[in-house]
Structures are given as C-alpha cells and as structure tokens.
Design goal:
This protein is 74% helix and 1% strand. By secondary structure, the protein is an all-alpha fold. The protein has two domains: 3-222, no CATH class; 238-436, Lysozyme (Orthogonal Bundle). A two-stranded antiparallel sheet has the order 1-2. The protein starts with a helix and ends with a helix. 30% of the residues are buried. Mean pLDDT is 80; it is low at 1-14 and 19-25.
C-alpha cells in the first residue's frame, strides 16, 4: 500500500477520533452534575430565609424602640439585637460557603478546559507530523507512485480541514476558559469582601455578648419586677458630671473627654446640618472597626500611587514624619492606609481639604486632629444625605460612608448601619442628659 493510501486511511482515523473526542468532551459545562445546581439552590434558599429572619428582628427592634420604657420592652429589644446579630453572622458564613463552592466549580471547569486544549493540541501535532511526511515526498515520488495531483489533494484535504477545525476549537475553548477565569476572579473578590465583613462583624458579636450580659444584669437586679427595674434604670443613668469626664476613644489620635467630642460634633453639625449624635456614632464605629485599624504603614499598606503620593504631600505640608503617622493596615485582599479618627484614605482627604479648612480654620487641615476629623466626617455624611435628618437617611448615609454608594444597599453591609444607629441612640441619650443639666 502506498504512503498516500496509508495517510488517507490515517486521516479518516483521525477524523473519527476527533468526532469521538468532541462527543465525549465537547461541552465541559454540560458535564456538571445536577447535584451542584441543587446544592447551590439549597444554599440560596437558606440564605434568603435567614435574611427574612434578620428583617423580622429589625422590625421588632423598630417597633419596640417606639414603646415607652419598661422592663419587658428593654428585654425584648436586647433579645432582638442578640438574635439579629446571631442570624447575620450565620448568613455571612453561608454566603462565604456558597461563594467557596462556586469558586470550586469554576476551578474544575478551568482544569477541564485546559485538559481539552492539551488533547486537541496533541491531535494537531500528530496531524502536522503526518503533513510533514507528505511534504517530504518529491513530485517525482508522487508521479512514480501512480497518483495524479487531484488524488493527492483529495488525500491531504482531510488533514487541512481537521487541522483548521482543531485550531478554531482551541481558540474558542481558550476564550471560554479566559471568561471562566475572569468569573472565578470576581467570585474570589466577593469572597474576600465577605471574609473581611465577617472579621468586622466579630465586633457585632462582641457587642452581642455585652447585650447578653446586660440582659442578665437587668433580670438579676430587677427580679422581673417593674418597680425594681425603674429604680435600676434611674441608678444607672449617668449624671452630667460623669458624662463630661467620660473619654471618647479616637483611632489614630489620643482619646478626648466626651464633652470635647460633643463640642466638635456640635460645631460640625452647625456647618453641615448632620445630627451631632450621628457624627459621634460614625467616629466611634470607625474607631472600633477591627484590630488592623491604625497599625499599618504607608510604605506597605497604601495603594501606590493613588494614596501614597497624596499621603506624602499631606504629611509634608503638615511638617509630619510619614513613617511615624498611624494608618490602617491592609487586609490580605486589598489596601489600607486610612488616616485618623474619621478613617479617610489620602486620595479622598485631599478632595475635602479645602472645605475642611474653610470650616475649621486649619489650613492645611490635619487628618489626625480630632476637630478636623469630626468636620471631615460630618461633610462626608452630609454629602451622603445625612442632613435630611430622618433615621432612614442617616442609616443610608452611614452605609455610604463605609461601603460607598454602589454597595450601600447590599444586605451584607447592613450591620454597619445598625451599629452606627445604635451608637447614635446611645450618644443622643447622653446629649439629652447634658442638655437638661
């Protein structure tokens, strides 16, 4: 049998192999089992159910806070806060689990795409070897073999067709693989975001434990009797002197007396229309957002050049050593570099500098100066809509302060708004006591 006949039969064999290959591996996506989709649907149902329960606890809190002070009312509020916090943490764990499984699915697909590309490249290599064997025969050999040109090209045609088809297939698979890789990276970013929020939410867990201790204290002291509870409430109401002496913790700056913090908040409120208690609530929340805050270095934790260049400019104009100024430490997935009590990143601070300087008289303003920080916080809250004064507007403004406008409506961030509003309520009570003294 001639070389051409051998190659012709080989080309038919390769074509059959390719058809079998496409039949078995042609659609990696369809090879996923239905169990994966069912598992994902189950997780999404569980998450939706948890979010409904969280919303229900928020509704209880809203209704109870409007009732007159009583033992049962305050116990119910504490119960609702504890339950909401527990549900929120459970929901975040579920969201992380769901994202982890999605990432695993994408990784499996990517490996299958890579395997298919490798196998198709092997087929192309084999075709090229056979084509080279054809090319190595001279025109004389073709003629002496008793074959005319039409028969020769009839033999080589399938090789060219299969080669082009495989190249096209590889290109298409590579495109789908790249798309899947991009989708995986988006999921990884979402998981990192959830893990970061979970870390921050440990603050809420600690507050829940404090609420549980408070509830136990209330029930122990009052023994369930309303009259005893009234006396207990009266005994723990801080008087004006104690409030003035209480220290207000600041991140990146020394703590100041509460009365001084209130003075800064009042001035900032007059300039912006944002309620002083809300300003205090945001500053307090930002000062307790985690162990990484304030322990970073501009050289390591800031995004360059977006924040490093304005940071060096800010410290230069203030006559400060950049290596000695505290900034937030970056999480493992992104960047840090937030400055002072208001936790502004340098690139945002420079956008507000002129307005801060005009309001405080400090030119240039200092991110680590409490007065400048309070004013910066109030200006940003005003820009976020807090000057409308309604609870909904204040909570939304706080969420925008933390997560930006695009993410403010996401349920994952709701705990921050809840925390800020709880703190604002606490500070409003203290402000009321000072006002009546």
């Amino acid at each position: 049998m001639s070389i051409f006949k051998n190659l012709f039969h080989y080309s038919k064999f390769v074509l059959l192999a390719v058809l079998i290959f496409f039949f078995v591996y042609g659609n990696p996506v369809s090879a996923q089992t239905s169990a994966v989709g069912e598992r994902r649907a189950q997780l999404e149902r569980e998450l939706a159910n948890l979010e409904k329960q969280i919303d229900a606890q928020r509704g209880i809190l809203s209704r109870k806070e409007k009732e007159s002070v009583s033992l049962q009312r305050d116990v119910d509020i504490l119960n609702a806060k504890i339950k909401k916090s527990e549900l929120s943490i459970k929901a975040r764990n579920l969201a992380i689990q769901n994202l982890s499984e999605d990432i695993g699915d994408k990784e499996t697909l990517i490996k299958r795409f890579e395997s298919k590309i490798d196998q198709e490249r092997e087929l192309i290599s084999e075709l090229l070897r056979q084509t080279n064997e054809l090319d190595s025969h001279s025109l004389a050999e073709i003629m002496l073999g008793g074959r005319n040109f039409s028969e020769f090209f009839e033999d080589i045609g399938p090789f060219i067709y299969i080669n082009e088809a495989l190249k096209k297939s590889i290109s298409e698979i590579a495109g789908v693989k790249d798309k899947t890789q991009s989708e995986k990276e988006v999921l990884v970013d979402k998981k990192a975001e959830q893990v970061s929020l979970q870390t921050l939410q440990q603050l809420e867990k600690r507050r829940t434990e404090q609420e549980q201790a408070k509830k136990k204290q209330i029930l122990t002291v009052s023994k369930g009797v309303e009259s005893l509870y009234k006396k207990f409430v009266a005994s723990i109401e801080l008087n004006a002197t104690k409030i003035r002496a209480e220290l207000f913790t600041l991140q990146g700056s020394a703590a100041i007396p509460f009365e001084k913090a209130l003075e800064f908040a009042n001035i900032a409120s007059k300039k912006t229309g944002v309620r002083p208690a809300l300003i205090l609530g945001v500053i307090a929340e930002e000062s307790n957002l985690g162990e990484n805050v304030g322990t970073g270095s501009w050289r390591v934790d800031m995004k360059a050049p977006r924040d490093t260049e304005p940071f060096l400019d800010i410290t230069r104009r203030l006559g400060l050593d950049p290596d000695k100024m505290p900034v937030s430490k970056k999480p493992w997935y992104g960047y840090g570099g937030a400055m002072g009590p208001a936790q502004f990143i340098p690139s945002t601070w420079v956008l507000y500098e002129e307005r801060i300087a005009k309001a405080t008289g400090h030119n240039p303003p200092n991110p680590w100066d409490p007065f400048d920080a309070f004013m910066a916080s109030a200006l940003l809250l005003m820009d976020n809509g807090a000057d409308k004064g309604t609870p909904a507007a204040e909570k939304l403004a706080a969420l925008r302060y933390f997560a930006g406008w695009a993410n403010a409506s996401k349920k994952a961030y709701a705990f921050y708004g809840d925390d800020v509003m709880d703190l604002a309520e606490k500070y409003q009570r203290q402000i009321d006591i000072l006002s009546s003294s």
